[in-house]
Specification:
Length: about 260
């Protein structure tokens, strides 16, 4: 489903999503960053709501301060601007698995109602080979060990599915208690930011619930773009439109 930018904001749906994703990092100290939308949002947060945010990438860079958006976790800009570069085994064994990172920021190809993620393969239909995706990378370990996980992705039937074609990364499993049963530390996914609004897990069921909409978006739009019966909070809020300063910072990052 494609949405148009709301009339109340001189910005695109992607810009609304990215700015709100950056704002979600306002209270974070350290962030393990995935490439793509998460990296854009995390770098924007460092230029706006959280200048001292420590960006960590799975290639082993600690405290990266890229002057442009990195193309991959192996982009030399990440190492050139980092406070330190460590080996990948040290990154995962000492920093991540020891619970030293506050927030993991992930994207997804498919997401289900319990914030489980697929980034491995998708079913392309009868007689067609599976569609191969980039794969797990560090996402399973990030989701298992960070203090909490933020997820950012575009909202569509194709992405928000009733059942994953493959479970790459466990969010809340099949409901309450699954993370504890599997021995996963941290809270798991606490917020999902999309180009339509914001979803959070229900404290009782762990199922994602629509809690906020972006300006100009309706509940009906969000439900139509979701592959399951999307539940809503009793009172749905409206996100604040991006400020001129936030939009300028985001556009400058993308132009660099």
């Amino acid at each position: 489903m494609t949405t148009t930018a709301p009339r109340t904001c001189d910005c695109t749906p992607d810009e609304l999503m990215t700015v709100n994703a950056a704002r979600a990092l306002a209270g974070a100290r350290t962030c393990f960053v995935g490439i793509g939308l998460p990296s854009t949002a995390a770098n924007l947060a460092r230029h706006t709501v959280r200048p001292d945010l420590v960006l960590i990438y799975e290639s082993g860079t600690l405290g990266s301060k890229p002057t442009r958006l990195p193309l991959s976790i192996g982009d030399g800009e990440l190492a050139d601007t980092a406070d330190a570069v460590v080996s990948v085994p040290e990154m995962f064994n000492y920093w991540l698995q020891a619970g030293r990172i506050d927030v993991g920021f992930l994207g997804a190809a498919q997401l289900d109602r319990y914030a489980n993620i697929n980034t491995t393969v998708v079913d392309r239909g009868p007689g067609k080979p599976q569609g191969r995706l980039p794969g797990a990378g560090g996402a399973p370990e990030i989701a298992a060990n960070c203090g909490e996980v933020l997820i950012v992705l575009r909202h569509s039937i194709r992405n928000f599915v009733r059942r994953l074609d493959f479970t790459t990364t466990v969010g809340h499993g099949s409901g309450p208690g699954d993370r504890q049963r599997l021995g996963l530390r941290g809270k798991g996914p606490t917020v999902v930011i999309t180009d339509l609004g914001v979803l959070r897990p229900d404290p009782a069921t762990a199922e994602l619930v629509l809690t906020e909409l972006h300006p100009g978006v309706t509940v009906e739009q969000a439900r139509a773009a979701t592959g399951w019966e999307l539940k809503t909070a009793d009172a749905i809020g409206t996100t604040t439109a991006p400020t001129p300063a936030e939009l300028a910072a985001l556009r400058a990052l993308k132009a660099a």
